[in-house]
Design a protein that fits this description.
Radius of gyration: 27 Å
Distance between the termini: 48 Å
Helix content: under 10%
CATH architecture of one domain: Sandwich
Number of strands: 58
Strand content: 35-45%
Oligomer: single chain
């Protein structure tokens, strides 16, 4: 998903001075352009009159497609690009604020559904601070008021008939006060999590699969009618079977919680600031990084620093990495990057300002390069799109490097590049007499840089010209000014929109001193290749559900879903048509209903096929199918007062048996020989009353069942 943000530029015109023999060309100059995003194989842009245009990267292919005579686009409201269409809030002469849709053509721009006819409108709303609409399992969710049910949960599949109320959570006209996760999380996976008030339990955590029956409260965290307090930038992060969030249950203050989607599996993960104090300020962003199968996070309390932590979703394995670090892992101006099995991040505070590195252990968390030099902003790691706190979706420049900006005490705030070694961490001096990179947020934001396969395009100043369009291939010689758009010492305020795949041209906005125009860089660029985001394979009843998404696509034709019994030889079992060209996340799914009886383990992978017949493969995912043929083992008796027996139905082999509590603490471990039709005895007499989990792990098998101790 992607959102257009209104950007207002102020600077003044001139001719082009070409420092690198490259040129830029104006595509649109009739009015000030405020921003743009990729949509299909074009770029959609908005100007200051409220009109929208589309460009394929050529002058003839650039035109206004929407004017205020059709609809007034409300840029300060939620909007999202999804499946090659742009969803936005707009109003026209006859209707109030409603959900509109466009495919980038005048004919394809329409009111999606008149949910609340008349001047009042339904006021569609999106995620925290109304940035965008969440998309989960090929459904776009939003909040709307139809004039009868209040502001409640709605969904759309992009058609009027498929735009429906999901559930009247708080019956009547009051509405349920829904809050979606902050859009930078982009981590819903297969379930929409949100907070809502049903009028009985107060504000609590809810989930939805897009159906009324499947929209339920996850847990009454603060029992009774009192609400649970969630962060104002409510953020959820899903990793494997767990989803993490910050909440205050009225007893422990703002702390980290996790859920598996059930009331029993929703727990306070760790009371980091013991008692009623908060480790996490509910007014600040949740700072995190997905590091493999673990979550790395830092306290964001402004008064006290509780350090950097790592967790696998269990209390026992929620471990402090460094008690002094004050890092912003996930906020857009201080992202972390994963390279060579470590993550690198920017941090400041009493441990020193610099780039740090960690392998996920306390001993392996240390300062990589020191930049403690005066009152200068912390180093900033530059990633495509700026913020990406899911390490699996990150892009490394040329496969093994990352860029960052920093001040070393001698050269001003400059561009740097690193391969993760000190010897390979190089200064790229752009301005020999001062700052090359603007340290203010407005000109050092994610839209101020753009990655292609070969170059980083950015806004920089060399001490002679203002902040202008530059590019770098990671070397000093290959770092050059592309064009002095606003000639002289004035700045152009460059803001990148994306690559128009129809012409392979990079499109951006800039102020030439007279107007903020839509520009393109002459010649073609090679956009980043298809980047697979989440890829999951889960057993659901007697079927395997595969879900995946792409962060972006260039000339992708289709995906082949492949299956294997041994993880070596794969067979294509189905194909899914790809979007083709997209600079925004696209979601896909496939259901394998042809499971073979008696098979206990299958492997799945994706083959991505491009339009030029090139192909590549995803990682391979194992799926254990014992549950498809009935429970692999049965615990009897269940509930139990003392000993229990594990009776194995269809497995013979060595297993490691573990008993854990609902917080993930391991209480008992034993190596046993399992025999199909036989049983293993466990003495649970000393366990306190409660619910426990028994796992049996062996070769090509991982079994799990719950039991209740009376």
């Amino acid at each position: 998903m992607q959102k257009i943000y209104a950007v207002i530029f102020t600077a003044v015109l001139a001719a082009c001075v070409n420092a690198s023999n490259a040129q830029v060309n104006i595509l649109y100059s009739a009015s000030n352009v405020q921003g743009g995003i990729t949509l299909g194989n074009k770029v959609l842009f908005i100007d200051n009159t409220g009109s929208a245009g589309a460009s394929d990267g050529t002058a003839d292919g650039t035109s206004i497609i929407i004017t205020q005579a059709t609809v007034n686009i409300l840029l300060n409201e939620a909007n999202t690009a999804w499946n090659n269409k742009f969803y936005f809030v707009g109003n026209d002469a006859a209707n109030g604020n409603e959900l509109w849709i466009t495919d980038g053509t005048a004919a394809g721009t329409k009111l999606l559904k008149n949910i609340n006819p008349g001047a009042s409108g339904s006021d569609p709303a999106g995620s925290a601070h109304n940035h965008s609409f969440p998309v989960v399992n090929n459904m776009l969710f939003f909040i709307a008021n139809d004039g009868v049910h209040g502001a409640e949960l709605w969904k759309t599949d992009g058609t009027a008939a498929g735009t429906v109320l999901v559930k009247d959570i708080n019956p009547g006209s009051a509405g349920s006060g829904i809050q979606f996760s902050h859009p930078t999380a982009n981590n819903y996976v297969n379930t929409l999590y949100f907070t809502a008030d049903d009028g009985v339990h107060g504000q609590e955590l809810w989930k939805s699969d897009g159906t009324s029956a499947g929209t339920t409260m996850v847990a009454d965290i603060t029992a009774g009618s009192a609400p649970t307090i969630f962060s104002s930038d409510f953020t959820i992060v899903s990793i494997g079977n767990y989803t993490f969030f910050i909440a205050d249950d009225g007893v422990h203050g703002g702390e980290l919680w996790r859920t598996d989607g059930t009331a029993g599996g929703t727990i306070l993960l760790k009371d980091i600031n013991a008692g009623s104090g908060e480790a996490f300020s509910l007014q600040n962003n949740f700072s995190y990084l997905v590091f493999g199968t673990k979550l790395v996070f830092t306290s964001n309390n402004n008064i006290h620093n509780y350090g950097m932590w790592i967790t696998d979703g269990t209390t026992a394995n929620t471990v402090l990495l460094n008690g002094s670090l004050n890092a912003s892992l996930g906020y857009y101006d201080n992202s972390a990057v994963i390279l060579n099995g470590k993550f690198y991040f920017s941090s400041g505070g009493n441990t020193g300002v610099g780039i740090w590195q960690s392998d996920g252990t306390p001993a392996g968390t240390k300062l990589f390069k020191d930049f403690t030099y005066g009152n200068i902003p912390n180093p900033k790691i530059m990633l495509p799109g700026g913020h990406n706190s899911d390490g699996a979706k990150q892009f490394l420049f040329q496969g093994n490097k990352f860029f960052f900006t920093a001040y070393d005490g001698l050269h001003g705030y400059q561009l740097w590049v690193s391969d993760g070694t000190l010897a390979g961490t190089k200064l790229i001096t752009i301005n020999p007499t001062g700052n090359a990179i603007d340290t203010t947020q407005s000109n050092n934001s994610p839209n101020s840089w753009y990655f292609t396969q070969d170059h980083l395009f950015l806004t920089a100043a060399d001490g002679v010209h203002g902040y202008e369009l530059w590019k770098s291939d990671g070397t000093v010689a290959g770092t050059v000014m592309v064009n002095d758009i606003n000639v002289g010492s004035a700045s152009a305020g460059v803001n990148f929109c994306g690559v128009a795949a129809a012409s392979s041209t990079l499109i951006f906005t800039a102020d030439n001193g007279s107007n903020t125009n839509l520009y393109k860089i002459s010649g073609t660029v090679t956009a980043l290749p298809v980047r697979l985001g989440n890829f999951t394979a889960q057993l659901k009843g007697g079927e395997v559900l595969l879900n995946w998404n792409t962060v972006q696509e260039i000339n992708t034709a289709w995906f082949n879903v492949q299956r294997s019994n041994d993880g070596i030889g794969f067979t294509t079992i189905g194909s899914v048509q790809a979007a083709g060209n997209s600079g925004i996340p696209v979601n896909y799914n496939y259901v394998d209903a042809g499971l073979t009886p008696g098979v206990s383990l299958l492997y799945y992978r994706l083959q991505q096929v491009d339009k030029d017949a090139k192909n590549s493969y995803s990682k391979t995912l194992p799926v254990r199918l014992n549950a498809a043929a009935g429970p692999a083992f049965v615990i009897t008796p269940n509930p139990s007062n003392a000993a229990v027996a594990l009776r194995f139905n269809n497995f013979t082999g060595n297993v490691t048996v573990k008993v854990t509590d609902m917080n993930g603490r391991v209480l008992f471990t034993s190596s046993q020989m399992a025999v199909a039709g036989g049983s293993i005895s466990l003495n649970t007499g000393k366990l306190a009353a409660g619910v426990y989990i028994v796992t049996a792990d062996g070769k090509n098998v991982a079994l799990k069942e719950k039991f209740v101790k009376k």
